[in-house]
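Person: Please comment on this record:
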Amino acid sequence: QVQLVESGGGLVQAGGSLRLSCAASGRTFSNYAMGWFRQTPGKEREFVAAINWNGGSEWYTDSVKGRFTISRDNAKNRVYLQMNSLKPEDTAVYYCAAALHLIYSGSRSDADFGSWGQGTQVTVSS
């Protein structure tokens, strides 16, 4: 099991930027893919981005392509989400997640992620 703690959320105007960070401890971080999801009240949790174990592959939901960048630092046990050109529709609680299995091929299902952080609120004002 891996423990995850997100940080970096906040209130930002449309067009601004935020960088989310997720600190991992416990299970060997560098062996597993990591992802970011988001959720707004009354809606299902939505896949945002994922990165494979060594940072060689990245996946994004269409609505954030070209604006968000996922990255990881295995030496620091951290994964990041750089969010640029933020829009009001990006407002949500953002969750960091660790893949359940060693082999990950870009699944967007939250069922393929087994550990979750507590979430960090991102609010984008218009």
Q: What stands out?
A: The two ends are 39 Å apart (CA to CA). The mean pLDDT is 96.
